[in-house]
Amino acid sequence: MTSPTVALVRAEFGRGRARLAGAATLALTGAACAVAAPLLVAGAIGELAGGRSAWADLIIVAFVSVVGAVAGAGSSFLVTSVGELAVAGTRMELVRRALTTDLTTLRTAGTGEITSRIVGDAGQMRTYTDVLASGLPVSALSACAFTAVMIWLDWVLFVVVVSTFLVASLSMRTFLRSTRRAGLRQQAALGQVTQQFQSVMASVTTVKAFGAESTMLERIRSDVEEVAASGVRGALSQSCITPLAGVAQQVAVVGVLAVGGLRVSSGALSLAHFVAFLMYLFQLVGPLVTIAQSLGRIQLAHSAIERMDEVLRFPPEASGVAPASRAEPSDDEPALSFQDVRVQVNEHHVLRGVTLQVPRTGMVALVGPSGAGKTSILNVIEGFLPLTSGRITIHGHPIEAWSVAERRARVSLVEQRPTLLNVALRQNLTLGATTWGGGDESVWCALEKVNLREKVESLPHGLDTVVDEATGLSGGEMQRLAIARALLRDADIVLFDEPTSALDEENENATTRALQSLAAVKAVVVVAHRPSLIRNACTVYSVDRGRVVTRYDAGDGREKGCIRNP
Ligand SMILES: Nc1ncnc2c1ncn2[C@@H]1O[C@H](COP(=O)(O)OP(=O)(O)OP(=O)(O)O)[C@@H](O)[C@H]1O
């Protein structure tokens, strides 16, 4: 199967083909200069041996060497710039895949693991692009050219060189394999470190409050040590490659000197060709070491590619069918309808046959003991939990008939544990707000409804305040900001999961009023424990063990608190 990472890199290289063509031309120039230099030196020796001046030849040698060096540097710069773009393109695709896959895949993989692939493994791929596009082809080209000239100069001496390098290359294969294994283990351990550290940071206050710093440190230590141990194993294998090439070169030099000396004295080889052959032999070691090291680095990059491939193969969220296949919502249909909805995750029966209806306007409350399945009902509407059987309709159309984006555009959610993004308050509040025309008035209006206007006005940067760990928002303030965000979104179904659980009486009353006025024009579903919220519901569904066990409807012209069992 083709690696999606490699396919991405190829596509990026395709986009940078002009620069790569320039790099290839420069690399060829560099290689040609490297090949020409010893021949020019041999020519100079011939001139000197014949008692003639060799100044002109030596100046040409110097010129060719400088041109070769400049061409090599230019080629490497061009390839590096294309490589950076390839890494950036791959990183963006990894982020896109992570954001567009379903929650189950995301949670199974672990966000820390994914982070380490986006940051660490993608960085490792720079090695791959550098090596593959620059070091390796140039060295291979030079080695081929040197080899061809060496055969032309004296094939007997070349056989001596090949036999020594063949023995060395067989030993190198073992080192290359162990480098790859070490690389895979190191990247996996690094992923674990990121995963563990992220989870500790997410609960850092709990860790501190319970004095669990050293316990957490110990949990992370074994993975950190594994990163180091695999790194050392990889470095050991890699560091054996250069000396091995050095030893092969020395053995080859001794062999070439012995055999070459005999051939020069017998007149089978001229002195100038013998010197040129030796120069090529010394020059050959550089490209050979680069090739061997490049192969080692490619092994490391391959392990990174395997790990990125896993993310790039994440399935996208089921997108539903195109809107064209569905008629416009009818006014007579309820906003939401569940018929015998069942959800099973692995062996766990989360919902066991839920039937309920939510009218187009008004508030429906879900009540019940902890773990009953209330949040799961909201999650299945959002598509965070997959439906096992049963039927859900939104405005009369089955959820399968809505694309995920369209369905979510109709629905707004305030989660039980709301989160704010690390961006300005304004951006947090207008996240997904389709009606927000760029003016702040609607934002202030939403903040007023949740009793937060004064607080935000008092902040030195107002709506431009960036929400980070140092902002120090209280749990109740976070909850009210999340409610304001939901009020600003132009969705016709609004889901609230225990929206007042962290609020004092005054803020609870303000929020209840905001929800009431919202329910006058929209369908509101609220998971609630507080009587103040339940009191305002037109229908209350009592949920237990994944089922609706009772339904209470408020009577016509009822007074507050008057909820009767049908
Ligand atoms: N993705 C999931 N995988 C496995 N089990 C799940 C999943 N989501 C929910 N559950 C389980 O389903 C049950 C219902 O969970 P849910 O969060 O819906 O309860 P709840 O009624 O909202 O509880 P609470 O009032 O405490 O928030 C729980 O036992 C929970 O562990």
UniProtKB/TrEMBL annotation:
SUPFAM superfamilies: ABC transporter transmembrane region, P-loop containing nucleoside triphosphate hydrolases. Its main location: membrane. It is a multi-pass membrane protein. The chain crosses the membrane at residues 20-46, 58-87, 131-149, 155-176, 271-292. Keywords: ATP-binding, Membrane, Nucleotide-binding, Transmembrane, Transmembrane helix. GO terms for molecular function: ABC-type oligopeptide transporter activity; ATP binding; ATP hydrolysis activity. One of its GO terms (cellular component) is plasma membrane. InterPro entries: AAA+_ATPase, ABC1_TM_dom, ABC1_TM_sf, ABC_transporter-like_ATP-bd, ABC_transporter-like_CS, P-loop_NTPase, Type_1_exporter. It comes from the Bacteria. Residues 21-300 form the ABC transmembrane type-1 domain. Residues 336-563 form the ABC transporter domain. It is found in: Cell membrane. This is ATP-binding cassette subfamily B protein. It comes from Yimella lutea. The lineage of its organism: Bacteria, Bacillati, Actinomycetota, Actinomycetes, Micrococcales.
